[in-house]
Design goal:
Elements lengths: L2 H15 L20 H14 L5 E2 L13 E2 L3 E6 L1 H13 L4 E6 L4 H6 L7 E5 L6 H10 L2 E4 L7 H14 L2 E5 L5 E14 L2 E12 L6 E6 L2 E5 L8 H12 L6
Parallel strand pairs: 3-7, 3-8, 4-5, 4-6, 6-7
Antiparallel strand pairs: 1-2, 8-9, 9-10, 10-11
Helix pairs in contact: 1-5, 5-6
Amino acid sequence: MDRLATARAALARAEENVGLAVQRGLLPVKDHAASPFQGATDSWQKGRTAAFSPAASWEVPPALRDLFPGGLVRGATYGVSGSPLLVLLLAGIASSHGAWTAFMGFSDIGWNVAELVGVNIAHTVIIPSNQHITASAVAAAIEGFDVVVLNAGVLLDVRERRLLARRALSHGTLVIAQGWETRERVIGVPLSVEGMSRGRGHITAIRMGIERPGRRHLLVRITARGWEAEEGMHVVPDTRFYEQRAHTIEHAQVVP
């Protein structure tokens, strides 16, 4: 089965597992009368095969090479904590290389910011948080997508997480999972916003720290032009404090 057929079957399985599909069996997504994935699969059919790259990893920008010396590795499972913006930034790196991405368990995403950090909306689908997402639904997404992003609200036990990580490794799928304790850990520290004063104005930039255990820290700045690294600044995170603040800028819209 080619990747297009696999992906469409995966979407159908995921829909059925979370109660979005009324038909039984692995039906093509286009046959689901009100499928929320229809637009994505139409685009997929036109260009997915050409976009797929068999490379073992996606190259990261130079500023991130110390943190990810081998790039974002296909088949790896990254456990992300702290700022939700870090999830978007990592997904955006793979997406900018042509990867197709499934976001699972998210009630809403700041798509404006997502696009700024590289997420290609035309190559993205979302399975919302108002559905009960099972391990089998995640497994289906892993089989059909290049990248699977899991919200912390997707509740899976340790055994299910371990089995899904193995499946991702065997399929070469990158998993970015909020709140998972994994060997590949990444921490995002929301630091500050620019453009606001005493509750007035609009956000013109967001600063976030990124760290990985045993590696140096990096500060990035997200603006309406995209994101860039700010060299020479050392981030000392306290994620217990910053995780409480993360939701305040998760859905931020950055304007010029």
